[in-house]
Amino acid sequence: MISCTWSAILYLTAAASLLFQPSCAQGVAHYWKPSGKYTSVCIDKRKNDRVLKLLTSLRHALTPVFNDLIAKKPDGTPNPSAAYLTFFKDAKNMPFVREMFVRVLDGNSEIPVDDGGKTFPDGQYKFSQGGSPVFWSITQLGEVSGGENGQVDVYTLCNENPDNTANYVNPSPYITLCPAFWEAGEPVMFGGIPPKGADGVPAENCLGLSRRAKLFNPTDGANGTGLIQWRMWILMEELLHYYIQLSTGRHGADSQRVNDVVRLSAADSLYTVQAYMYYAA
Q1: Mean pLDDT (the chain, rounded)
Q2: Exposed site from 43, 93, 110, 138, fewest CB < 10 Å?
Q3: 243-281 burial, b for 16+ CB within 10 Å, e for fewer?
Q4: Which residues does 217 contact at the CB level (< 8 Å), separation at least 6?
Q5: Which of 2, 246, 7, 13 is nearest to 148 (CA)?
């Protein structure tokens, strides 16, 4: 059973934000389950198991990313891959990019457990392990509501926008997962990692190239967005919002289309979540 309130900015995957003051409905039983320093919360405890499996898939999927970011030339200098240079441009930023992925893997808190009640009235973050991120699967009306007069329900907010699969509530540890996150269909999110092709490479990871324009094919996979709309990557997207915003105080461009991300400067890409997602995927 839980009763809680907090004030925050709610960042949506649909590239929108609004001032939000949610309060958790009283008298609703929630199951919670930890995975390392992360926690999954839901009325339906089966979804907690599924979230934890996705986090395990994410940890495995990021192994080649770390290998790529520590690659060295024979003289000991960084050896950035073509994928890295496409999205981050400058090899000198490799330690910064690697640090953000380290934070995603470790799950450490970026916020104090007790901030004196400034953000959370009782000075605590329910279900959070020391301020580390919490994935909260929203399944019905009355779980989390808020707004200026407590009249906005997150479940309603989720259903108003079919593209809204998940939200990060800044500056709290809470990441809310909408019903659309769990529904198969459009966008395609059937599992943790895209299925592998005959050569062992996930087919959905292959974006067509327009060599004449030196860009990815803008019609291929909805300009790349299909690539990063798997559940596993959506979890990483919201975690990156948490870690980038709270560790740097910056909220980068919310560019979804792959060519828009490619056009970002080296400096701007460091604070743009989708740059990390396309690079990893």
Answers
A1: 75
A2: 43
A3: bbbbeeeebbbbbbbbbebbebeeebbbbbbbbbbbbbb
A4: 207, 208, 209, 210
A5: 7
Residue with tokens 């909260």: 136
Q: What are phi and psi of 12, to 5 degrees?
A: -100, 150
In the three-class reduction of DSSP (H, G, I as helix; E, B as strand; rest coil), residue 8 is classed as strand
pTM: 0.80
CB atoms within 10 A of CB 85: 13
Which amino acid type is present at position 94?
A: M
Rounded to an integer, what distance in angstroms lies between the CA atom of residue 59 and that of residue 191? Answer: 15
Rounded CA-CA distance 168/88 in Å is 24
Q: Read off the pLDDT of residues 35-73 as tens digits, 9 standing for 90 and up.
A: 999 999 988 889 999 999 999 989 988 999 999 999 999
Task: Write the DSSP assignment of 215-242 as a string of letters.
Answer: EE-TTTTTTTGGGG-SHHHHHHHHHHHH
